[in-house]
Amino acid sequence: MLAILLGVVALFGPAGAVAAQGRQGMTGPCFERSVPSRVVDVHLSVGAEKAAHLAETIAGLLSNMEVTLCLTKGPPVTVDRIANVPFAPAPSVARIWIHRGTKVLKIYVVNGVWDRILERRVPLRRGIDEVAVEEGAHIVQSSVEALLAGALLGVTRPEFMKAQMREKEEASSVAPTPPARPSRPDETLRVDMGLRFASRGLGGGAVLGHSLGFLGAVTWGRGDLRPVLAMTLGYILPSTPTAAPVVVETQGGEARLLVGGAWVLGPNTEVWGLVGAGVDVQWIGAAAAVEPGTLGVGDQTEWLPFAMGSITLRQSLVAGFFLSLAVEGHFDILDLRYVVDNGVAAPEIVDDPWRFQPGMSLSVGAALP
């Protein structure tokens, strides 16, 4: 018991430097106060505060053994230092190195003749806490007891080095973690709101002109293909298209509901494919007859439904703003024509299924946070 306490004092008192010298030969207090073959030489590299607590715990567990505990502090030990036998090492029961690794407390135990090595690791879930200290100290206790009883601990030095080499090779062969995909503000749900300018009816007909309105769209999901729901409301600007045999003044409103998908090309670029339906509310103003002797009739409102599809390129800008350009195709279900009857040209709604009218639109807006 006295030999153990003297060894602990050597770690934290003025004789600590002399105790470190005892590791290389038959000098120093640890070896002078005991039978050399009964020395347990422990090297700690866990920080001063933790070393004191660990040393005290180890000393308490070894207090009932006829051994001298020699405790020293120093930098972390290398595998080569453990595996290579120094010239004329001092006799001892065991040489033990304890140092803190990455989230683990590493313990190496070498027997007296330095031909077998035992490695143990204690997980550090909350640093070197009381649980880790107790577990590490008990590993030291059980190892010393086994060596005093003549047991063979661990593996031979060549086997130990081979195991260390395999561990290094496995660590170096692990595939590097791929870089994380840049986070996108729209990965779960995004709501776009903006202003829209469109031109439609480039193929001719009574419904011909431009519109200015509102765009709202919802995109959700996390993959490269995401569903989209869009709606537009617009005001059809006044125009004077020719609907033979008259020239009419028209204006009105439009509404559309579209569904489809978004293909995400990158953090800021998407392509939308949408299909849906809409309706034009067309107000017909004054009608001027083109042919002499013909009277044009106007001043009425007509509802003209249509189906449509579009391909849209959406580009995100700074601060959540976006710009989108769409190419559209409209398929009229009904058509507005003027029919001359007894010299009077009057508007008439006729079936004209799937008459195609191309168009384009430009939208600018922002994604809601």
Explained architecture:
The protein is of the alpha+beta class. It has 2 domains: 2-163, Rossmann fold (3-Layer(aba) Sandwich), CATH 3.40.50; 189-367, Porin, CATH 2.40.160. The chain is 21% helix and 50% strand. It has helices spanning 2-12, 16-21, 29-32, 48-61, 79-83, 130-148, 157-173, and strands at residues 39-45, 68-73, 94-100, 104-111, 116-123, 155-156, 189-200, 209-220, 225-239, 242-243, 246-264, 269-289, 295-296, 300-316, 321-341, 344-367. α1 packs antiparallel against α4 (48-61). The longest helix is centred in the middle third of the chain and has 19 residues, at 130-148.
Give the key terms.
369 residues, alpha+beta, Porin, eight-stranded antiparallel barrel, 16 strands
- What structural class do the secondary elements suggest? alpha+beta
Shape: rod-shaped
Strand order of the largest sheet: 7-8-9-11-12-14-15-16
Describe the largest sheet: 8 strands, antiparallel, barrel
Tell me the number of strands.
16
Name the helix and strand elements from N-terminus to C-terminus, one letter apiece.
HHHEHEHEEEHEHEEEEEEEEEE
- Uncertain runs are 1-29, 203-207
Indicate the CATH architecture of the largest domain.
Beta Barrel
Give the class-level CATH name of the largest domain. Answer: Mainly Beta
State the end-to-end CA separation. 71 Å
* Number of H/I helices: 7
* Helix amount: 10-25%
Radius of gyration: 44 Å
Instruction: Name the beta content range.
Output: over 45%
Q: What number is the mean pLDDT?
A: 78
Q: What is the number of domains?
A: 2
CATH topology of the largest domain: Porin
